[in-house]
Structure of TetR/AcrR family transcriptional regulator:
Amino acid sequence: MSTQAATAAARRSKITPERERELYGAVLDLLREGGYDAVTMEGVAARTKCGKATLYRQWKTKSQLVTAALDKSRRSLFTGIDTGTLAGDLRAAAVAAAARRGADTELMEAVGQAYLHHPDLRRALRETVINPEVAALDAMLRRGVERGEIAPDHPAIPFVAPGFLGVLRVEPLFEDRFPAADALPAYLEAVILPALGLTPPGGHRPAP
């Protein structure tokens, strides 16, 4: 844990877990209702009957509060995935991500434009939301290398996490091509696993 994260955790420890969930819930509701610009410290304070000074003391800025709420809502996305094979891990991750598709899409759309125009939000989102997801996928790849499933210098390795997470982000823009909730698992089978050499000839998924 970074020094900044440890400091933030220490500050938040003064708020009970129940109160923290209430505050984060208010933030997410405001995001869904009106996007990033609709979230204000004043608005969260009013909805939760929390002092505005308390919010600033705990999170310092709106961007930190928003990203903390997003991080809390997504923290368990890839937690605990370790099937014993790289293909199994990636398939489990794709299923987990697809199951969260609806809820995540609303929130990502809400912060999408703000991400481009607010550097502080961009930095905070990368630290608390994007980087942990990338790290989890990279860990699956490292385990695959250690088991001898793929070579450590396989040229597809650097592109797995960007491709995997990229489909999640752009899927709403291509609803005509991805009408079902299983777009990411399908992409995994059609593109990522063949690129890693983890599917048999013809690209068919092996029988369980």
Summary: The mean pLDDT is 83. The two ends are 38 Å apart (CA to CA). The chain is about 70% helix and 0% strand.
